[in-house]
Q: What sequence folds into this?
């Protein structure tokens, strides 16, 4: 006889899942460790902390520090592909490029989030964008060992450039996810304008990597003065023949 | 003023209705200033690639295009709104259209740092890659302006749905305003050309013969040229693309028309 051990009065129903957007709580303290953990494990708690204006300055500084360190190490890894002056130029260009891209995209982020119907304030948007950069940087930091292995193993700029691009796109989309969560937390269901902004921000960062070239590979000059659209540049890179005697010495690097 | 503009961007029907129920001179001024600032900043970055002087010209012409379109259509749009039974006064009709253009101005103005970066990073107009840069510019700006236009129209649609007696009247009012503004606006954009500035043609405020021809004839001739004398299929595809772009507006009206 198949006897049930369950109490008929209290059936063993699955526990209702708590909505993290509603049941979030502020981080107990703001430090590098808690901010890093908040970015990766408890994004809604971090978003809740962003709403408290008394913590804004400290939170922005902490997140900026995480971004700077992450991008610096990522940049050094990119520079290690060519070594020489790229070991210091690539990290500086990476930090400047991402920072400047975020700066010129901030006005449109403010307007596009307002179009979704949220009531997020400018300082929340700034903190959210800083958190996005910090999460991108944290993910790039995570990918750094993989990139380093390939930077030391491969001589092909096209291969290393493609790998970096894939890593960038993965980190970018996870990173910008924090903005989507901010919208969820603010109660709006419209996401269209933000998705368009994410696309624009991605295009700006890709163009920035071309404007600040070379980041991978070396050149006689620190910056290439010729202006070029990033897709045109990529196609030209794919078509350009490799130099057999000095495979890493190409002035038209990404 | 900033708080009011943010409310406008959020596009909540009640807030939009609040704007329209108070067609004060202050609200009209806020919209006029927003349009002037947003469109001239964006216009400057649009013309800058060709030459800084062209940027200055386009920066002046873009807000002027909006003013001319509204000045030309304001009277007939106000009358149509009354005849259709929207219940909106002349002043409210003007403010509603200004609100919609303000949304577009805010979106385009906020994108101006990005389009400035785009202009500064494209090959100069005197270099071999100029033709492809001009084409890329044309596509990018068309997409950005189309997005701003759709968002502005969505706001106008929400406003009309909230302020008029029923969705049918709101739809008719929107359609009459949009078609009038599109036809007149297109012709004014033709008269005020150039905006993008072809690399092969000298920088100038107006073309030598600004009033000679119409936008629609010019568009049809261009279509004939690029389709080797078969413009009809291209026109049908163009209309289909336009309908896809306008689908959020159709969706808004179909949701409102459903009985609750």
A:
């Amino acid at each position: 006889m198949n006897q049930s051990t369950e109490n008929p009065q209290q059936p063993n129903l699955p526990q209702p899942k708590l909505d993290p957007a509603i049941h979030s709580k502020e981080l107990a303290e703001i430090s590098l460790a808690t901010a890093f953990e908040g970015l990766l494990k408890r994004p809604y708690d971090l978003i809740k902390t962003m709403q408290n204006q008394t913590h804004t300055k400290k939170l922005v500084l902490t997140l900026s520090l995480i971004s700077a360190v992450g991008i610096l190490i990522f940049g050094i890894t990119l520079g290690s592909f060519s070594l020489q002056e790229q070991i210091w130029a690539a990290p500086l260009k990476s930090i400047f490029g991402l920072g400047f891209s975020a700066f010129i995209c901030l006005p449109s982020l403010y307007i596009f989030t307002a179009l979704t119907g949220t009531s997020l304030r400018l300082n929340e948007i700034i903190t959210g964008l800083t958190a996005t950069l910090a999460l991108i940087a944290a993910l790039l930091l995570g990918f750094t060992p993989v990139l380093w292995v390939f930077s030391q193993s491969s001589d092909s700029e096209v291969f290393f450039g493609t790998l970096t691009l894939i890593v960038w796109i993965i980190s970018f989309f996870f990173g910008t996810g924090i903005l989507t969560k901010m919208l969820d937390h603010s109660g709006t269901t419209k996401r269209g304008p933000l998705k368009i902004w994410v696309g624009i921000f991605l295009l700006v960062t890709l163009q920035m990597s071309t404007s600040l070239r070379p980041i991978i590979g070396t050149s006689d000059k620190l910056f290439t003065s010729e202006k070029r659209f990033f897709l045109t540049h990529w196609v030209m890179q794919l078509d350009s023949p490799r130099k057999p005697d000095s495979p890493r010495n190409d002035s038209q690097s990404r | 003023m900033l708080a009011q503009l943010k409310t406008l961007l959020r596009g909540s029907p009640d807030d939009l209705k609040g704007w329209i129920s108070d067609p004060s001179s202050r609200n009209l001024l806020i919209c006029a200033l927003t349009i002037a600032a947003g469109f001239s900043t964006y216009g400057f970055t649009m013309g800058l690639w060709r030459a800084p002087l062209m940027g200055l010209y386009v920066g002046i012409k873009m807000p002027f295009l909006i003013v001319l379109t509204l000045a030309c259509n304001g009277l007939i749009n106000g009358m149509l709104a009354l005849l259709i039974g929207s219940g909106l006064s002349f002043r409210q009709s003007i403010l509603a259209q200004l609100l919609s253009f303000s949304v577009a101005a805010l979106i385009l103005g906020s994108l101006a740092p990005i389009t400035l970066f785009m202009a500064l990073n494209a090959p100069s107009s005197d270099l071999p890659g100029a033709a492809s840069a001009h084409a890329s510019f044309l596509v990018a700006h068309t997409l950005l302006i189309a997005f701003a236009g759709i968002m502005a129209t969505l706001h106008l649609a929400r406003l009309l749905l909230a302020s008029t007696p029923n969705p049918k009247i709101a739809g008719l009012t929107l359609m009459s305003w949009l078609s009038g503004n599109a036809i007149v606006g297109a012709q004014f954009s033709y008269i005020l050309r150039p905006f993008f500035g072809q690399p092969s043609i000298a920088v100038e405020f107006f073309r030598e013969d600004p009033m000679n021809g119409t936008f629609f004839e010019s568009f049809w001739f261009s279509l004939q040229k690029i389709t080797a004398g078969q413009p009809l299929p291209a026109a049908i595809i163009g209309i289909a693309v336009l309908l896809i772009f306008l689908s959020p507006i159709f969706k808004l009206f179909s949701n409102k028309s459903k009985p609750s």
Observations:
- Chain A has one domain: 49-239.
- Helices of chain A lie at 32-40, 43-51, 56-79, 86-115, 122-153, 157-186, 192-211, 230-239.
- Chain A touches chain B through 25 residues (CB under 8 Å).
